[in-house]
Amino acid sequence: MAECGVCFRHCRIPEGQLGFCGARIAHNGRSEAYNYGRITSLGLDPIEKKPLARFYPGSRILSAGSFGCNLRCPFCQNYEISWSEQARRFAETAELLSPEELVDIALAARKRDNIGVAFTYNEPLVGYEFVRDTAKLVKAEGMKNVMVTNGTAELAIWEELAPYVDAMNVDLKGFTDDYYRKVLGGDRRQVMDFIEEAVKTCHVELTTLIVPGENDSEEEMRELSGWVSRLREPDGESVPLHISRFFPQFHMRDRRATDVRTIYHLADVARKNLEYVYTGNC
Ligand code: SF4
To answer: Looking at ligand 1, which atom is closest to the CA of residue 13?
Structure first.
């Protein structure tokens, strides 16, 4: 039996079995990344697609994903590799790449405006060892590391990654404990702690997906953006917020896509507190 200390769930995993995220396995009494180097998606994306609006705009970044996730968002856009039945099958069929091989691909893509590696598509923190080992090599080559994450990890995990990660987009999916706990299967406090720590050393942008009837009130956006406004990056800059539109999919098909007018209105509400607000999927 191993107790995993990566996220708030602290799974107790029987030897040889996987934890809740499907990405970590108990091996010799310890929790290890079962998804280490198992790559399910690889592509050269515009940096704005992460989304990062204020980090090397106009560049591209080699984006790699594995499988597994420690949340259970019913509207997941990447459910094939996060927490569906298909994700479990990917565990067996994913292509194996070593950190060195991934860095070689990143270097070869330099001539196509690639600035580094983004750990994205599934939740990278549940396989943080691969992020750490690869990011070290990427940095040694003078390239950049980006992470796109739900921010659901203990601070000790972030401490291992912090020396290497240059920029992150972190989901701040809403601003009530109930929404995090009941709808997403998450822990809002852990995400907020993660963000507060990350902004001390890393360029951070945040994303909030607006789901009709869940997190779309003016009041919630006022509170969320007010909290974000108190964060400061190392250079004193304020933290950008991306407000994004929901589309019905996966297990949440009982409501329509977010009205574009709602997104623009909530962006205006956020702009009363924040300097950099962007709208997405509109
Ligand atoms: S990272 Fe995975 S195995 Fe570890 S505590 Fe979280 S859900 Fe459980």
So the answer is: 3
